[in-house]
Amino acid sequence: MAETDLHRQLMTALIEALEDRFAADPNVYVSGNLLLFFEEGNKRKHVSPDVFVVFGVPKRVRDNYLVWEEGRGPGVVIELTSSSTRREDTHTKHVLYRDVLRVPEYFLFDPRGDYLDPRFQGFRLTAGEYRPMRLKEGRLHSRQLGLWLVPVGEHLRLMDPETGKLLPTRAEAREAEARARQAAEAEVERLRGELAARNRPNGRNGR
User: Fold this and answer.
1) Which fold has domain 5-166?
2) Cβ–Cβ contacts within 10 Å for residue 109, how many?
3) pLDDT tens-digit series, residues 46-91
4) Is the pLDDT of residue 205 over 70?
5) How does residue 191 score in pLDDT terms, banded at 50, 70 and 90?
6) Which of 106, 111, 140 is nearest to 125 (CA)?
7) In terms of DSSP bridges, do strands 105-109 and 36-37 run parallel, antiparallel, or are they unpaired?
8) Distance CA 180, CA 202 (A)
9) CB of 73 closer than 8 Å to CB of 3
10) Any idea where the domains of the chain sit in the sequence?
11) What pTM, to 2 d.p., does this model score?
């Protein structure tokens, strides 16, 4: 559960951007703030990652995620750290994701830099241990996602390494579509005006 409006906004924006990124792949499941159960028959054994991506399972709506039924766990987990989740994110979940779920990549982001130093951290599972990723110009590369994760102010954004551009949020995508539509409509009106001018009778000779 998101602790603040900012955490909820960040979580939603990341989930939506990842959903849009992998929309064409039927076997990539993106979710977050969803109960993930990892021990069959034990309802207490669960975790709720802020954002997670599973590769190789069908894209469909789920009430919860049962690892033993799906046959695999997350390939990437992103946790948005707050005052109430700091210890859990850096200790309890760290161990769970490393030793039990064996998540290949685990990212931690503290939007305001109040609880983590550095505020953005990433770990890659190597020989059963989490090795810290090295920040490059303040960002981290996810091999699993094929994307850069980039802090921008209080937000964590995703960048396409091929274009060097941030993946748009859905709000940004809507704004871009609206601008393109307005530009197209303006061009149509301009062409109509030119055509009308060409067909206008010559005032001097009455034609």
Assistant:
1) tt1808, chain A (3.90.1570)
2) 26
3) 999 999 999 999 999 999 999 999 999 999 999 999 888 888 999 9
4) no
5) confident
6) 106
7) unpaired
8) 36
9) no
10) 5-166, 168-200
11) 0.87
